[in-house]
Amino acid sequence: MNQEKQNECILTGALWIGLALGIGGLLLDPSGAVLGLIRIMSHQDLLITDYIELAGIGSALLNVSLMTLATVGLLILSGDKCHGFTLAELGLMAGFSFFGKNLVNSWPIVLGTWIFSRIHRESFHRYIAVALLTTSLAPLVSWLMFGSSFASIPLGVAVGMLLGYVMPDLSAYTYKVLNGVSLYNAGFACGLLATVAVSILAALGDRPDTVLIWSSRYSMQIGAALAIGSAALIVSAFLTGEPARSVWDGWLRMLCCPGRSPCDWLRDFGLGAVLLNTGVNGILGIGYILVIGGQFSGPVVGGILTLMGFAGGGKHIRNSLPIMVGVAVGCLLMRTSPAVESLQIAGLFGTTLAPVTGTFGVFAGVLAGALHSAVVRQTGGPVAGMNLYNNGFSGGLVAMVVYPLLTAIHHRRPSLRLQNIDYIDTLEGEVPSDDGEGLPDDEVPLPGSAKPPAEDRSTEPEPSQN
Question: How deeply is 253 buried, as exposed, middle or buried, from its count of CB atoms within 10 A (0-12, 13-18, 19+)?
């Protein structure tokens, strides 16, 4: 399938899904959906605020619809071409619209990144992904608009624009620190910004804190809808016009990839294999919540949609399942149930560390998941619910510790190859994918270089012990 047809399929599909969610929301709550949407947009939205509990299922679906349609519109207007990370952008924007993101608290951030692109005289399509990801800090905008002791809408807008403006450079820096083994680089960067912002607010006498607004009223219906949607994606994988054997073989080869960033499985394996992987990831997320006895709330839906979104590059069942098992094991070791609300989503979002499994093996993945289950319980305090991608912040901290530890155990030198890669290019699909055959770090070809022949891989000299 050529690039133009692929773009059309992905964006048209997202458009129809967005419209269907909006219509569904209005039908479920004809009289209260719009009023509930106003409540969503005027709430302070600190983590965890489940919009289904806050304003009702109809209003939540209407908000998701508007955010999905707005995302598709921005992708089209910016001229961005679909690649593996486009699916992650759509999954993140739709998923977090169930708990934290709305049109009011997101647009100032996007505007700030657009201003950055104009000042630097570059096309906005290069930064559209960063703009969308930075909406992780949307609760900070809402807090300054509606919740702070000195709240005002102009203040929230101004700070949101500032956040959007500084994030391209900050995220490019943190990307190199994580060595590609944590997929939520923007979550880590946003966590750093949120920590600084909360410290400033506290110094000024403002005391934001995490909240817990959680719904379990529609758990069975939401779980069934997710299962049907995942099954539909699996079936649609074989209706893309690609040979069924090609789709299946592409997915099997995908399972051999470590998932380490940068990777673009849409380019490498085709739309059919990616749709199949998306559906399987959805089933994996649903299965995990059922096994631990969780509920399909708004945040859990966001976690499953994010797991599905990264099916285009980074996550598959082989590298994600050990992380989930590790989170559950970590909870049991801490004598805490993995069905606790914040830990339910930690099991889903913790798959930001899926590349640890792909790079170092199953045991390493379980270890990383267990560490994540402990760290994520502490990282919420410093950011005070201001960073929606708190698991990305926690995952980044775990990655920074686990990567050098495992490299030392495996007698492999830490790679510096990410120093030669522009983070913005990875979001645009302009960088070759990380090698899927498990090459040692120093053997992974740099962008523009030739891949080393297979027969030469065993002849590389041993790393220096100096």
Answer: middle
pLDDT confidence band for 412 (50 / 70 / 90)? low
Residues facing residue 213 across a β-bridge: 49
pLDDT per position as a tens digit, 213-239: 999 999 999 999 999 999 999 999 999
442 pLDDT more than 50: no
**What's the pTM?**
0.90
Per DSSP, what are the bridge partners of residue 49? 213
Distance CA 337, CA 344 (A): 9
Q: Using CA atoms, how far apart are residues 235 and 335, in angstroms rounded to an integer?
A: 40
As to burial, measured by CB atoms within 10 angstroms (0-12 exposed, 13-18 middle, 19+ buried), residue 387 is: buried
Rounded to a whole number, what is the distance in angstroms from the first to the last CA of the chain? 50
Question: How far is 315 from 357, CA to CA, in rounded Å?
Answer: 10
Q: How far apart are CA 240 and CA 233, in angstroms?
A: 11
Structure tokens at 378: 């502490």
pLDDT in tens, 322-368: 999 999 999 999 999 999 999 999 999 999 999 999 999 999 999 99
Closest CA to 389 of 349, 419, 357, 422: 349
The DSSP 8-state label assigned to residue 403 in this structure reads H
* Coil, helix or strand at residue 218: coil
Is residue 327 within 8 A of residue 279, CB to CB? The reply is no
Q: Give the separation between CA 119 and CA 222, rounded to whole angstroms.
A: 44
Give residues with Cβ within 8 angstroms of 124, minimum separation 6: 78, 113, 114, 117, 118, 131
Q: What is the DSSP letter of 432?
A: P
| 320 and 281 Cβ atoms separated by less than 8 Å | yes
Average pLDDT, integer, range 73-85: 91
